[in-house]
Amino acid sequence: MDEWWVMLPDSRAAAAVAGRLCREGVRCVPHASGRPWLVGRWDARREVSARTGEARVIVLGRSAARAEVLRRRTERVRLPAEAERAVSGLAGSFHVLASVGGRVWARGTASAVCRVFTAHVDGVPVAAGRADVLAALSGADPDPETLAVRLLYPPVTSTLLADRTYWRNVRAVPPHEALVRERDGRRGPTARWRQPPEPHLSLTEAAAAVRTALTDTVGTCTADGGTVSADLSGGLDSTSLRFLAAGAAGHLVTVHWEGQDLVGPTNSVLPLLQPLLFPLAFGGGLSALVPDAALGGQYRAFLYPGILLMAVQAPAVSVGFRLITDRYSGIVRELLVTPARRSSLLCGICLGGCATATVQGAVLLALAPAGGLPYRPLLLGGLLAELALTAFAPTALTLVPAVLTRRPETFTTLLALTSAPLLFGSGALVPLSTLPSWVTSAAALNPLAYAADILRRTARPSAAAGVRWGAWQPPPVIEAGVLLLTAVTALLWAARGFGRADDLT
């Protein structure tokens, strides 16, 4: 083990547990009674302690604490909870440990970087800064259920596992609470050491206060000078901290981890394969089943607009899934701290997905001769504009369930149940006239049917009839208007849900 500590109550039974830990190189800090209080091994440079009367306060970790200031503040400590006054306003990442008349107090950080764990060893309640130390000391077995849940992706909300560790009978104290023990080891009253401040500051005042707090905290990392390493993910949090560190560190080294398959060529090419496989898989078989009279020409030419639709549908729909995973990973929370309106953020997400889908469709549009279309700039330009509108509709529609659902499994199930019926009922693969009458009627409510009809009637004005409102077939400009209205309505609905904070936690 490297650095570790164990905190004991002021009792005779606890002294026997300390006897198992005390060996060469292990430090032992006593209560005012002389019995062991803290036992462990840690860097003395990371410790700032004070002792006055029956009060002992130790700040253990990276901090800006000064021994003389801590000693003066400790003189006014009469109760364990009053140890917080001694460290009020202190920057850094550290444990606060106190013993006042034999009663003990221990807490970590609100960020949960420093945690406090509890367990019983030989019937004695003890605390430590590492769960594995308590597991080894108490002989606790691993907890396979907790381990399995921790391995899930997307990760399970941390509040469900707030006090569970990888070992049975070893519990974690919630980050916002402090552990309080009486002299005999009994659990004291629940103490919440940190309360979120009231939102009484203006944005300008709050920004200045946050900058001061960040500067002071980063200063505890760079105070010793030399080389400082830091993560640089590119997000709003890490970038700001790196700028502060660069101004104070002697030498700053940043590390950036990037997944190998996020935007690699494989992920760019694979989505194009599915629409290209449809002519090979279905082209020959379906062309034999669908008469040319129903198509108004060759099946290859009929199928090409449907392939364009499928090419933009997949990347557009994936925007919703990315939004859910970004919510669980914390990326959405980082975006919400920016001054931008939440509706603007969602519009940006939607437009980004539309752009990606449109570019992917444009790649297939370059293969127009394979679909029986000539290279005519006006024709290809019109199809490209329609592809952008076609990408906008499924992207906006997908964002609605992505914002309103809380579980990725629910969103995935909903997507699986709706994607295929909407595609096959749109007339993208076979003419609507060859399908059952109820499917033809339902096509008037299917956004993909309007998209397929617009693309096909632009590519081949003599194409077979698609969407009908009764006996009337709306012209392409009205179909485009319906598609645009549907997309805008869905985006406004999603933006309203995205503006609610309880949907994003």
Give the topology.
Layout: E1 4-7, H1 12-21, E2 27-30, E3 36-41, E4 47-52, E5 55-63, H2 67-74, H3 83-86, E6 92-100, E7 103-107, E8 117-121, E9 124-128, H4 131-138, H5 144-150, E10 171-172, E11 177-181, E12 191-192, H6 203-222, E13 227-231, H7 236-248, E14 251-255, H8 265-289, H9 292-295, H10 299-329, H11 331-336, H12 342-365, H13 377-404, H14 408-424, H15 437-442, H16 447-459, H17 476-498
Parallel strand pairs: 13-14
Antiparallel strand pairs: 1-3, 1-9, 2-3, 4-5, 5-6, 6-7, 7-11, 8-9, 8-10, 11-12
Helix pairs in contact: 6-7, 8-10, 10-12, 10-13, 10-14, 10-16, 12-13, 12-17, 13-16, 13-17, 16-17
Q: Could you please describe the fold and organization of this structure?
A:
With 505 residues, the protein is of the alpha+beta class. 49% of the residues lie in helices and 14% in strands. It has 17 helices and 14 strands. Helix 10 runs parallel beside helix 13 and helix 10 packs antiparallel against helix 14.
Put simply, the count of helices is: 17
Low-pLDDT segments, ≥5 res: 501-505
Shape descriptor = elongated
The pLDDT mean sits at: 83
Q: Tally the beta strands.
A: 14
Which secondary-structure class do the elements indicate? alpha+beta
The biggest sheet amounts to:
6 strands, antiparallel
Strand order of the largest sheet: 2-3-1-9-8-10
Helix content: 40-55%
Question: What value does the Rg take, in angstroms?
Answer: 32 Å
